[in-house]
UniProtKB/TrEMBL annotation:
GO cellular component, one term: external side of plasma membrane
Membrane-crossing residue ranges in chain numbering: 91-115
Subcellular localization, as worded in the UniProt entry: Membrane
Record's bilayer topology term: Single-pass membrane protein
Biological source species: Bison bison bison
Lineage: Eukaryota, Metazoa, Chordata, Craniata, Vertebrata
Gene: IL13RA2
A GO term for molecular function: cytokine receptor activity
Coiled-coil regions listed: none
Signal listed as a keyword: yes
InterPro entries: FN3_sf, Ig-like_fold
PANTHER family named among the record's database cross-references: CYTOKINE RECEPTOR, INTERLEUKIN 13 RECEPTOR SUBUNIT ALPHA 2
Protein name per the record: Interleukin-13 receptor subunit alpha-2 isoform X1
Sorted UniProt keywords: Membrane, Receptor, Signal, Transmembrane, Transmembrane helix
Gene3D superfamilies the record matches: Immunoglobulins (2.60.40.10)
Length: 133
């Protein structure tokens, strides 16, 4: 499967109607472009119009085909399902920003402690030099 292809697969509706009697309608929305297609399978491969697409959403509905019923009525549309492109950027920001902030905090605390320790050692060293004992 190419990077621009998306494999959509959905569950067959439960009930007494055999799977071979169903036809599916899929509505796609890619960024601001929408289109509809029909299939007899519960799986479809689509090609995105652009590799830079930020979002691809789809809805599915079904009805009985002409071989099982004279006039089928379309079901309600499924809940919209969306795939978001470049999710790695979001994940990277989600983990990288806190990691950088914590690392920066640890670095500042370490530097501060080292600075205070150095000053304390200087003070002790100067005090020992002045002491006549």
């Amino acid at each position: 499967m190419k990077n621009s292809e998306v494999n959509l697969k959905w569950s067959i509706p439960r009930g007494p109607i055999p799977a071979k009697c169903l036809i599916y309608e899929i509505e796609f929305t890619e960024d601001d472009t929408a289109w509809v297609t029909t299939t007899i399978e519960n799986e479809i491969y689509i090609t995105r119009t652009s590799n830079e697409s930020l979002q691809l959403c789809f809805l599915v509905r079904s009805k009985m085909n002409i071989y099982c019923a004279d006039d089928g009525i379309w079901s309600e549309w499924s809940d919209e399902q969306c795939w978001k492109g470049d999710i790695w950027k979001e994940i990277l920001l989600f983990f990288l920003v806190p990691f950088v902030l914590v690392s920066l905090f640890v670095l500042i605390v370490t530097c501060t402690l080292l600075y205070k320790q150095r000053n304390l050692l200087k003070m002790v060293f100067h005090t020992e030099k002045r002491s006549p004992f």
